[in-house]
Amino acid sequence: xxxxxxxxxxxxxxxxxxxxxxxxxxxxxxxxxxxxxxxxxxxxxxxxxxxxxxxxxxxxxxxxxxxxxxxxxxxxxxxxxxxxxxxxxxxxxxxxxxxxxxxxxxxxxxxxxxxxxxxxxxxxxxxxxxxxxxxxxxxxxxxxxxxxxxxxxxxxxxxxxxxxxxxxxxxxxxxxxxxxxxxxxxxxxxxxxxxx
Length: 196
Known about the structure:
This protein has helices at 18-32, 34-53, 58-73, 77-90, 152-164, 179-189; strands at residues 10-15, 96-101, 105-108, 115-116, 122-125, 129-133, 139-143, 148-149, 168-170. By secondary structure, the protein is of the alpha+beta class.
């Protein structure tokens, strides 16, 4: 097991809980399975609307409504199932990860192999966590508040973006969505589009 590098530019950690494992799986799903998510949402809406509008016996309408509602309420069933399986495999001993970030690579206390920044596939963050994906299937999660080093979290992200050539995607949880955040997200994606 690696110990954190004392000459690191930045350090961070992640104390995993069942909630953070589930959040990681849902974030991964939202980032890499958008097409599947949108198709499922579209199918559920179509079934619900059809169940309300078609003129037929009550049972076919009720069945369409039921299937549409089940699809809509189980949108995150797949990532939650994956997270529950990961939690079960850890058998109550969820990992505590310590990260050390150098000039061109970072290390994690659970691995002796450093990760070069040029192998970063995607960077993302939300209100509390930073996600570093190496592939759509593998990645790391860390608590933004735990980052130490020059300029803290902002300095780390700048270092990662410059070294990897990736821009950080900002994700928003459904519980954090408001009209104000939606407008701010649209403005950040289209900075030269004028005022909304």
